[in-house]
TrEMBL record:
GO terms for molecular function: hydrolase activity. It holds the Pfam family Hydrolase_4. This is Alpha/beta hydrolase. SUPFAM superfamilies: alpha/beta-Hydrolases (SSF53474). Residues 66-177 form the Serine aminopeptidase S33 domain. PANTHER family: ALPHA/BETA-HYDROLASE, ALPHA_BETA HYDROLASE FOLD-1 DOMAIN-CONTAINING PROTEIN. It comes from Roseateles paludis. It comes from the Bacteria. InterPro entries: AB_hydrolase_fold, DNA-binding_regulatory, Hydrolase_4. Keywords: Hydrolase.
Length: 293
């Protein structure tokens, strides 16, 4: 085969790769809007719409509790508030108020693009503000899954929360992209990460430097439980260990054996509930853990 043909073939492959990555970038940041509907009857919740920035809002389910604790529940990427219903139910049994929201650009909340935690942070801020105004003097905790975890850390809430549980959170967007490409294309795929990352300013008006939860974690200002699956390939265990090392005391690390990048509650319901209730009993309610039935 002549050098010219080789060159044309290689050029065609590169063009095809660039087009594929461009399309992938669009799909990854495209909003995950969908109708969610009313809350399940067993939640005993009401639907609320909370203003974030002018012209934008997040929608959620709010249920009052019997204790002085309230827990904000934040789903993962491309999910919605229904993902957190089982958590809300066992927390309500422990007496806590709960608020589940659709993060910006998800479910019934407004938003033009998924921004991997940066602008989703405005939804977290609006939800915490709602809890403080609706339940004066309440002690507030957050449980965030993946995107929900990153959004919590990037929100930089002040005053600080009483307790935070971060599940399956990426340390930096660079590593998150590399890990996902490596899963699909091997080591060569990880080297293609810059071709996706350079799209961030074009797609969502952000740089990769704005998406480094590990840098913001030390200023979280609340006791933190960091949990991730031992077999998670989206966020590798050494990356989770680095997150834990970056967090300030008091902190707890939970390595969930046998779990990949999955819903940790669904993977191990009883151990999950026990650990979460014990952590919240110590840092949110200041008493003994209650058992969820």
């Amino acid at each position: 085969m002549s050098a010219r043909i080789w060159g044309l073939s290689l050029g065609g492959l590169l063009c095809g790769l660039l087009v594929t990555l461009w399309v992938a970038g669009d799909l990854l940041s495209r909003p995950a809007a969908r109708e969610v509907g009313p809350p399940p009857q067993e939640l005993g919740a009401q639907t609320v719409s909370l203003s974030t920035v002018p012209g934008q809002h997040v929608v959620g389910w709010f249920a009052r509790g019997e204790s002085q604790g309230a827990v904000l529940l934040l789903h993962g990427v491309r999910g919605d508030r229904r993902q957190m219903t089982e958590r809300a139910l066992f927390l309500q049994q422990a007496g806590d108020a709960t608020l589940q929201i659709d993060l910006p650009a998800h479910g019934e909340s407004s938003g033009e693009r998924i921004t991997f935690g940066a602008r989703e942070a405005a939804g977290v801020e609006a939800a915490v503000r709602f809890l403080r105004q609706t339940l004066p003097g309440v002690q507030i905790a957050v449980i965030g899954v993946s995107l929900g975890a990153a959004s919590t850390v990037l929100a930089g809430l002040d005053p600080a929360l009483q307790a935070v549980i971060l599940e399956s959170m990426y340390p930096t967007i660079d590593e998150a992209v590399q890990d996902r490409l490596a899963m699909r294309l091997g080591r060569v795929g990880a080297g293609l990460a810059p071709l996706l990352l350079w799209q961030l300013p074009l797609r969502v008006g952000l740089s990769a430097e704005a998406l480094r939860p590990i840098d913001r974690l030390p200023s979280l200002g609340a006791p933190v439980l960091i949990a991730s699956g031992a077999d998670d390939q989206h966020t590798l265990w050494p990356e989770t260990q680095r997150l834990f090392d970056a967090a300030k005391e008091p902190k707890v690390l939970w390595r969930v054996e046998g779990a990949a990048h999955v819903d940790l509650h669904d993977h191990a319901p009883e151990p999950y509930r026990q650990r979460v209730l014990e952590f919240l009993a110590q840092h949110l309610r200041g008493g003994a853990a209650q058992t969820a039935h």
